[in-house]
Amino acid sequence: MVGVFEVGAVPFNPDGWGPPDSTTATTPTTTTTTLPLHVPFAPFSRSEKLGRIADFTRSFPSSNANPSNRPSSAKPGAANSSDGPFDFSLDFDAFPLANPDDDSSFRLVDAKPPPRPKFGPKWRFNQHRPQLPQRRDEEVEARKREAEKERARRDRLYNLNRSNQNQPRREAAIFKSSVDIQPEWNMHDQIPFSTFSKLSFSVAEPEDLLLCGALEYYDRSFDRITPKNERRLERFKNRNFFKVTTTDDPVIRRLANEDKATVFATDTILATLMCASRSVYSWDIVVQRVGNKLFFDKRDGSQLDLLSVHETSQEPLPEAKDDINSAYSLGVEAAYINQNFSQQVLVRDGNKVSFDEPNPFANEGDEVASVAYRYRRWKLDDDMYLVARCEVQSVVEVNKQKSFLTLNALNEFDPKYSGVDWRQKLETQRGAVLATELKNNANKLAKWTAQALLASADLMKLGYVSRVHPRDHFNHVILAVVGYKPRDFAAQINLNTANMWGIVKSIVDLCMKLNEGKYVLVKDPSKPQVRIYEVPADAFENDYVEEPLPEDEQVQPPTMDGEGEEANGTTNDVEDKEIEAQT
After folding, report:
1. What count of other Cβ atoms lies within 10 Å of the Cβ of residue 583?
2. Of 531, 504, 509, 520, whose CA–CA distance to 192 is shortest?
3. 120-148 pLDDT, tens per residue?
4. Cβ pair 469, 447 in contact under 8 A
5. Given 3-state DSSP classes, what are the helix, strand and coil percentages for the chain, each rounded to the nearest 5?
6. Looking at 341-484, which runs of residues are DSSP E strands?
7. I want to staple 429 with a disulfide (CB 3.0 to 4.6 A). Which of 1, 157, 419, 425 is the partner?
8. What is the rounded CA–CA span in Å between residue 345 and residue 223?
9. Can you tell me the distance from the alpha carbon of 224 to that of 169, in angstroms, rounded to the nearest whole number?
10. What's the pTM?
11. Under 8 Å CB-to-CB from 294, ≥6 apart: which residues?
């Protein structure tokens, strides 16, 4: 017998399409429903999850099967027919209309339009693109490696610059004054360095009043020196070098008596004033007002006789005085190197260029270093002239004309401090080596350039001298010699000639307003400014008693200035004793 599938009564909706609003048929006597019996009904909305109503592809067990095989959710009252080979029953409990646990096959259709793309740089840079985990791990590892390198570098510098546990740092050296300020000194004025940058003054070409001394010719073979064919730096113990202050110069005294000028100084003192804004270490200059004349002097034992090393560097230097890399030891070593270098690069065949007068500081029979003194005069005002003693160390013949040269040497003491190894970089990256020196020794190079400009030198030779071994501060080698025109080099290091003379003119005008007496111009050890103190007339003399500094803070330069035999003495013997004592 074939089973009959009863569809049931389909209600008719006369008002429109679809089922009627009421699902029951009402008669005068009875009320019948058109919905199937025992069928659960669950209302739903379009946003709810819907499952399958019936699945004819699945086969269910017949009525003879064990009812325990039916799903646990099946109810015994569900419609079922077992009269035929096919089971057309609708098991609504097995296939619920809404199954919240069946999320794997559910797809929610979003009818919203897709977001419009935001074009422009703001959207482009603000978007966060997901990165692969492997890429992110690589960046994290790279940052860790960089942090480890930075930590290792700081530890290495800290251990390198500490000779003992109680060693003072570089800051302690900066705060030491070059001269002990006495309580009875009266401060007249203080000038910040910020005002120096705004000064400008133009001077006419100077005139030569007198030339003294004799010069030897420059040896051009030193221009071909490279780190591969370096030359050992020789020592010249028999040659005398003089560092005489302004008032001890017999020529300047004679010119002052003849009223040739109003202001008198040396090229070293003028260069210190011109480059004051680049200085870091403390220095001092003695100013004497005598009548209507002004004399700029350096006192005995002044720092101006030493050459600073690593003055403008950010890396601290050891402050122990007996350390070969301390500021004091390097200053002595630099002065020793410069004197020997200036004599080794000459043609020592006895052929010299002599001038009007011999060396005014040499005694008869002394072997004098090759140097010429040019006493030059500049016009600062209608009734104010300045006379300065300028130095040149050699002469060279170019196109049958003699050109004056200044000779100076930069010294490398330890590549770990500068970060540049001259033996590896001088041939291929000479510009990088010079840039590093300009950063670490800005004041010293500016002063050398100012001295060459004051002397009207045609060429300034810079030598690169290094230690044979970083721990041997007594033996050196010449790695290279490079020549520069002073004006071109001044433009390269941003040294303005008008600004230099503006600084000198302002200080001269300020000192000319002072009363007669002795004053000292001191660069503040902790601030970028200079101060003017009025001192007693016998200050800095042999019989003037000052409160002494502690022994570890006293700085005695390797040169002596004074009258008579001490003033004309050499600096070689003093420097040799200093260096031999350290070795």
Report:
1. 9
2. 531
3. 554 444 444 544 444 556 777 788 888 88
4. no
5. 30, 20, 50
6. 352-354, 371-381, 384-392, 394-398, 401-412, 459-469, 472-484
7. 425
8. 9
9. 41
10. 0.65
11. 262, 263, 264, 287, 288, 508, 511, 512
